[in-house]
Amino acid sequence: MKVIVEADGGSRGNPGTAGYGAVVLDAETGELLAERMGALGIATNNVAEYQGLIAGLTAAAELGADEVEARMDSKLVVEQMSGRWQIKHPGLRPLAAQAANLVRRFKSVKFTWIPRERNKRADALANRAMDGKSAPEEPAPATPPRKVAGPDSPGRAAARAAAASASTRTEVTAPVSSWVPPTAPATRLVLVRHGETEYTARKLYSGRGEAALTQRGLAQARAAAERVGPVAAVVTSPLSRCSRTAALIAEAAGGVPVRVEPDLVECDFGAWEGLSFAQVQEGWPDQMRAWLASPAVAPPDGESFDEVALRVNRAVERLRAEYPGERVAVVSHVSPIKLILRDALAAGPAFLHRCYLEPAGLSSVDYWPDGGIAVRSVNETAHLRGIT
């Protein structure tokens, strides 16, 4: 689906009382699909404009859009996001980085400057936010955001295959920025998969259900804790297989705080929970094919990888903002970690089925304030040698 995002932000005083607004429109019909607005307290015009863009891109992603034209009357934001102007102000770099991560969620994003008189809808929402008014009633989405797998007709199956093929050739119209040497230390996320459980050992789908670490899993978690080393904090999925692993990492790091982050929970596999790949293939052959072909498809009564990616990206953005320049251990599951690595590498959907992560394996990603990202390692397992 292609959409148009119109975004704006303003400040009465610059800096002063600030707010932002954004609308999402169907690119073919012009139908209003979503409106977003928010007050920012005291901020500058440029900060508010970036917040409007972030809100609009987030809404477009939640609607399942894959192509976006982002229209703004801010020449600065359009030129910076298009990679033609440098982002010199340090206060804008984290916002540009957040917008850049959202851009990577789409097949293509085009940034277009428009005169202010053509951006009245977003401007009105921004002013409404600055006036302290509540948001207007949200329009009903044109299509439900969740796509639960069901029997496909031959034509629909062919369309899914074509979409999956096209997604491997994703191109972002607007590069975020040209490479420049980093000017500030990176936030390093050390991504740790939890130790082995009975479900892991038997290769069963293990999503939202609780599954305790085995004795081998505990040994793996202790080894991972020693390998992780010093960190500023440990952030974990709420499920016990992760929180137990996280506690061992925090203890080995000298008793640093452990924070539960609900957005890092594993994918909800719905009706497939606790089953093997062979059992799912036998019981839901059409749904399994559709699920493997597209990250937008969910297991019956479950959650799609696209939905998981949205919440995991929210968690990553929060960690980048809260721990600038720090080293943070992130304890999670296969799907969230794979999605973080996929987006950091700007890889396609096939990455999710080609990347293997061992229980208690470590990966690491660096994030710079100006939007730069570097994957340092994937699935380190040397610390697990000798554990039987």
From TrEMBL:
Active site, UniProt feature: 194 (tele-phosphohistidine intermediate), 266 (proton donor/acceptor), 266 (proton donor/acceptor)
SUPFAM superfamilies, per database record: Phosphoglycerate mutase-like, Ribonuclease H-like
The RNase H type-1 domain, residue ranges: 1-131
Residue ranges of the region described as Disordered: 127-179
Stretches with biased composition (Low complexity): 156-170
Alphabetical list of CDD domains matching this protein: HP_PGM_like (cd07067), RNase_HI_like (cd09279)
Cellular component, GO annotation: cytoplasm
GO molecular-function term, one example from the UniProt record: phosphatase activity
Binding locations of substrate: 241
Record-linked Gene3D superfamilies: Phosphoglycerate mutase-like, Ribonuclease H-like superfamily/Ribonuclease H
NCBIfam families, per database record: PRK07238.1
Protein name: Bifunctional RNase H/acid phosphatase
Organism from which the protein derives: Planosporangium mesophilum
